[in-house]
Amino acid sequence: MSPLLSATAPATEAAQAGADTPRLRVEGLSTSFMTERGRINSVSDVSFTVPPGRTLALVGESGSGKSVTNLSLMGLHDRGSHPVVGGQAYFQRRNGEIINLIGLSAAQFRTLRGNEIAMVFQEPMTSLNPLLKVGEQIAESVRLHWGYDQKRALAHAQRMLDMVEIPAAARRLHEYPHQLSGGMRQRVMIAIAMACTPTLLIADEPTTALDVTIQAQILALMGRLQKETGMSILFVTHNLGVVAQYADEIAVMYAGRIVERGDVHHLFAQPTHPYTRALLDCLPALARQRRSENAADRPRLPAIQGQVASPFNMPPGCAFRPRCPVATPECDLAMPPLYRVNEHQEARCIRVKDTLHE
């Protein structure tokens, strides 16, 4: 048994709760906010599933709607912006019960957050409380959800620091976030998220602020914890190299919609949507490969021209149309649905059949 599971708890019942049922099934998720210029749609008709023990990566440029999707699932939007969240997000609890996360009350969310669903935020220095010692911040979850007293909760917090491979855990337990390095702070964030052995972990750009060596260590740690606990991971990143190495499935987002989704290996081998192709072309390794194939026609490092469409001024039809190198007038007529490319992929492009043979 893993060190984490043996040290905690109510043993998880996830293994008995229907292994074939998705841990999370999102259907038609849409989120809008009120602004001074009127209500805008930040996420529209987003659907995906996260199977038990698997990793789904949400990828796309900044402004594509990845973080809004996560916050909608966690019920963490700022109420001052008057968010309206629609659609369904069915989550399978430890006991096998399936609940819809959309529309839960604040009290209902509190029983889930940090307990069965946890989130690792993008920047630990702004997510950790600078006034509390890291041990207190880890212990809070088990005091709240499992009823541990202070002594037992701190002992559990020390085990969590050991689990995320922080050296001298007994000493670090009593230190403040500013006394830790960036890599250690991110490990503390993971320890907080894993304290109650969640069955779903949402990781929102968890390694963006770290150097490459520490990034690899954090990702390896998350992979190990996933194998030990069987948790599902919804991994948000813009780093396609990370996706290729750690994710099982991928959903590519653009302007608040999923434009392509599927198995990682097939999608990387045969990207169908022009936006997915453009993202992959920006990877240095692929750029070098293509330069060697046709050095005269390939730029040194391709870039996607233009910017993600503003939600205040969305183009008609396909949102990627103004930046698409293969667009046709037909692309302006309507937003295309997700077409089935093969048994492994779907893409939101009217040229699916053409691009498959280009």
Tell me what the structure shows:
The N terminus is likely disordered. The protein is built from 14 helices and twelve strands. α5 packs parallel to α8 and α8 runs parallel beside α9. The longest helix is centred in the middle third of the chain and has 18 residues. The radius of gyration is 21 Å and the shape is globular. With 358 residues, it is of the alpha/beta class. Helix content is 34%, strand content 22%.
Please tally the β strands and state the result.
12
End-to-end separation in angstroms reads 50 Å
Q: Name the helicity range.
A: 25-40%
Largest sheet: 8 strands, mixed
Order of strands across the widest beta sheet?
A: 6-7-8-3-9-10-12-11
Shape designation: globular
Stretches with pLDDT under 50, minimum 5 residues: 1-17
As a percent range, the share of strand residues is 15-25%
Gyration radius, rounded: 21 Å
> Please, what is the average pLDDT?
86
Note the run of SSEs as H and E. Answer: HEEEHEEHEHHHHHEHEHEEHHHEEH
Please identify the structural class as seen in this structure.
Answer: alpha/beta
- The number of distinct helices, counting runs of at least 4 residues, comes to 14
List keywords for this structure.
four-stranded antiparallel β-sheet, eight-stranded mixed β-sheet, 358 residues, alpha/beta
How would you briefly describe this protein structure?
The protein has 358 residues and is an alpha/beta fold. It has helices at residues 3-7, 66-74, 106-112, 124-127, 134-146, 150-163, 169-172, 182-194, 212-229, 240-246, 264-269, 274-281, 284-293, 352-355; strands at residues 24-35, 38-50, 55-59, 84-92, 98-100, 117-120, 200-204, 232-237, 249-254, 257-263, 339-342, 345-347. The strands form two sheets. It has an eight-stranded mixed beta sheet with strand order 6-7-8-3-9-10-12-11, with helices on both faces. A four-stranded antiparallel beta sheet has the order 2-1-4-5, covered by helices on one side.
